[in-house]
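Entry 14. Structure prediction run on the chain below.
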Amino acid sequence: MFPFRFRQGTHQSAADAAQPNASPSLGSLPWQSAADASEDAQRRLDAMERDEPKRRLIRDAKALAKIRKITQAQMAEEVGVPHRTLEEWLQFRRMPKAPGTTLLQRWVTAHSRAE
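Output returned:
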């Protein structure tokens, strides 16, 4: 019925389920083993570390736009991307791919020299 297998011995009564500290292992779901949960956590940590240079670039771009006192729409026009795309980057909802990262780097270097 389910595409995954539940761990054995995790049956809980309604009273046990109501207690928040009764979880057998924090952060894991009923169908995850402890190894799967740690692998998932490691995978998320690796992704965060991989995106850290992009996060720094976006923080620098936001700070530069604030110093220059320009709007996101003006910044998007200067960078050459749609306003909505830039908005999602600046709010860390999405990370730019390689072309977007290059555009941001060029914009930051070009306008940080002018300041």
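Residues 52-115 form a domain with the 434 Repressor (Amino-terminal Domain) fold (CATH 1.10.260).
Filed with the rest of this week's runs.
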